[in-house]
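Posting here for the record, re: uridine-diphosphate-N-acetylglucosamine.
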Amino acid sequence: MKRQFHALVLAAGKGTRFKSEKIKLLHTLMGKSMLKMGVDSISQLKPKMTHIIVGYQKEALMEEFSGDGISFITQKSQLGTAHAVMAASKTLSKYNEDDVLIMNGDLPLIRPHTLRPLLKQHQKQGNALTFMSAEMDDPTGFGRVIYLDKNRIRIIEERDATTEQRKLKEGNAGIYVFKIKDMIAALPKILNKNKKGEYYLTDIIEILSSSGKKVGVHKTTHVREIVGVNDRFELAKAVKILRMRKIESMALKGVTFYDPASTWIDFDVNIGRDTVIYPFVVLEGNSVIGKECTLYPGAHIINSRLGQGVKILSSTMIEESRIADKAQIGPFTHLRPNSIIKSGAKVGNFVEMKNTVFGNRSKAGHLSYVGDSLVGKDVNIGAGTITCNYDGVKKNKTIIDDRVFVGSGTQLVAPLKVRKGAYIAAGSTITKDVSAEALVVARVKQREIKDWVSKKKKK
Ligand code: UD1
Ligand code: CA
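Prediction output follows.
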């Protein structure tokens, strides 16, 4: 029978090598924190419970996982990885007959299909402990696995290793499965006699194996997932791997990428089939891009939804907005939060929109600001139209009904209603509601003073 297992993630350390005010594990890769990446992978293996060891900035960490059904255990002072596990002894001892999967919190690239065989091997061999290792080209920063004799294995941390030991290529991944009972019995035997003066969890490997307990090594071939991000350059390298992983998975689902190396797509973004992505496109947060869209260079989309066949032309920023099928946005457009662009609409060159519904097939092609507005269908917003939505105290609404024509250079002073089919003459400043089908002209009449220039010169 498959044994139940608990998961324990070590996340109490500050991450000094990150040189940050913020705890290392809350730094993000493609929109998701390092710790959440690792914890989400473990969750897919369905542990009985997941416990996170917290200490440094624990409130922020706990907030990150609020509502995820995770239990937190506090390690008051950070005296090493074994000391962190000891903080969980009391909780885990209630489940003496189960296993526990222990993982360092700084393994954002680890995937469920890499963790699964470790658990399997552990249960199949009936080990007291099975840990993951990998043969690395460059194991710098990792503890090295040393086989003392047939049954005795030891891990030596890099800073405590001799030059000879440092040449060993098998690194400790920082992922372990224990029989809870055996682990709890061995933990108190760990001492802090090393260069750092810390209690190393890795010492338990020699303790268990030399006391006759069965210790197994699961050597994974997925070396690229074993990163143990310690500083920001390692984070940058991990992001690079993750970015390509994301782009590969989208490409295999039918998305075209002209230049993966210059494309940034956050972890939670989704893209439909036959969409084409030009170089220098950035898609962030939980954005969803529909099928058959084209995103031209410099499209920057944050937490937004695009329907089918949408075109985003060059250098366009879209935040928290929704764009329906076949609409076209850009070039140089800024859609600020809560812009709802209906199907077939066009928002073009140097237009800014905010908190606005923009109806089917309506157009705002050039140099306009449309804010806090409700714009109907087939409306034409002429070049340089401005909704004057702010009176210095509050934001006011502009309502423009279907088929309205707004001439160029118009100011619409809100609150204001322009009824169906009305025409507004170019250069108008509209301060009162406009009736349906009417033409309004609200500008001073043109005057011409004959020979004004020549007379002035004579003076
Ligand atoms: C650790 C391993 C090393 C392994 C490497 C893999 C030890 C002693 N060494 O080294 O063999 O090759 O990971 O990446 O375990 N933490 C706590 N409380 C503490 C100290 C650390 O919760 O008191 C947490 C940290 O937040 C971190 C994790 O434990 O998530 C690992 O700590 P870190 O300092 O990164 O260990 P390494 O030096 O990388
Ligand atoms: Ca580490």
